[in-house]
Amino acid sequence: MRATILNCTLKPSPEPSNTDALAEIVAAGLRDLGTDVRSIRLVDHDIKPGVSSDMGDGDEWPRIREEILRSEILIMASPTWVGHPSSIAQRAIERMDAMLSETGEDGTPVAYNRVAGVVVTGNEDGAHHVISEINGALGDIGFTIPGQAWVYWNMGPGPGPSYTDTDHGHQYVHQVAGLMAKNLYAVAAALREHPIPAEISRGED
């Protein structure tokens, strides 16, 4: 089993990322189940704006797309900014929009038979809104969203410490992250054994 984490922090490497730190808890749970996990910090790459899989010279999205399609599990990890996903997360979703019309050799949409989940951090409210926006988009694109395949951390409204600055809520959040990993793995394994048939994905009788 393979998993790809798209870290949508606004912080370029090697700056520490709270989003990366929380996503790594989910990654550890997946590794414990035997999953090969790779994390990609999108801000480190030249991802052109657009809704095609390849926007031409210098566009690094095609290689990232390959990693997504080599994986059975996709995790989008985003900070919360003014109650919304980061601009990097939105750009990734816009680029994945092209997958709506892309199919494999048997005609199955390329995002089918893959699962997706969401990791959210931030010291303000809005986490459930961010989860809903990202999960809704990924479901539209064709990914399967398991139950409780998300985890978030924040301090509530107003200023305050970041995830890595405090132990506040970590025990509960880490339990939820472990459950997220197990649910993603279980549904991915089920789809690998019993994939959505091509004729169903094409809407044939």
TrEMBL record:
Record-linked Gene3D superfamilies: 3.40.50.360
Entry-linked Pfam families: FMN_red
InterPro entries reported in the protein's UniProt record: Flavoprotein-like_sf, FMN_Rdtase-like_dom
Protein's name according to its UniProt entry: NADPH-dependent FMN reductase-like domain-containing protein
Highest rank taxon of the organism: Bacteria
Organism: Amycolatopsis deserti
Domain NADPH-dependent FMN reductase-like intervals: 2-153
